[in-house]
Structure formats: C-alpha cells, structure tokens
Amino acid sequence: AGTLAGVWAGTGFYLAVxxxxxxxxxxxxxxxxxxxxxxxxxxxRVLTSLWGPSSSDLYATGExxxxxxxxxxxxxxxxxxxxxxxxxxxxxxxxxxxxAVGYNSTVLAATSGSGFGTPxxxxxxxxxxSLEPRADAMLVRGALPEGAARQARKxx
Length: 156
Fold this sequence. Notes:
1 helix; 4-stranded antiparallel sheet; mainly beta; 5% helix
C-alpha cells in the first residue's frame, strides 16, 4: 500500500495518483465503482496531484517537474522546462487553461492545446515575491478569531 495524493471523480469513473509503498515511484489507479485497478503511467516519478475537466483529459503533477496527461486510456509526459517538484494542478472547468505550481515559486501555465510551457517562477506575480514562508511567519492553530480580535491579529 502506498500513498495517494490526488483523486479525480466523475460519473462512474474514478482515478487516483500517488506514490508506491517505498515512496520511490508514482502509481495510478482507476475504478468504475466496484474495485480499483493499477494503471501504468509510464513514469517513475512520484505523483502529487490530479485535475482535469473530463475523464479523457486529466493532468497529474509530480516530482522533477513531471506533468502527465491522461486521455482516458494512456498517459503521456508533457515537457515543463523545470526540475522542481510540482505540488498541485488546477484549471478551468471548460479546459481553456490551467496552472501547475511547485517548489521555488514555480508557476506553469497552459492554455487549451498549448500544454504547460516555460516555468515562470515568481515573475508572474507583481514585484519580487516568493511563495516560501518567512522565518517570522505565524503558526496559528484552531478557529480564526472573530471581530476585534481578528482585526488585532492582522496588525501583528
């Protein structure tokens, strides 16, 4: 048993991606509701997330800049131009575009038919910023305060 990191659910079809039990390679599983079956991704990379507008147009991200596209029957690797771990992928429900994000503030953008192009770390944001947490970032656990207490917290 490995670790699942991303699940996609459609009408009567489910797909999950993640890592094998050693955490050294990616795995994918599909189901039509009764049981799960392993499907080969053709990639040795650990997979971290899954998104897509339909069961025949799904995208998985992973380590070493991995983006895979699933067309309903097989996986195809997509060029990304980065070796950074890509943590998450999401996009428009009409498949007009999508984003994959990862370590080192990597942001990949795609439009319908274009694939995921050249990585754009931090440059897509206004000004020189980073998605890395600051050393003085606050760790807050539990419910957010309300009213005046919430306003006071913002000023810290």
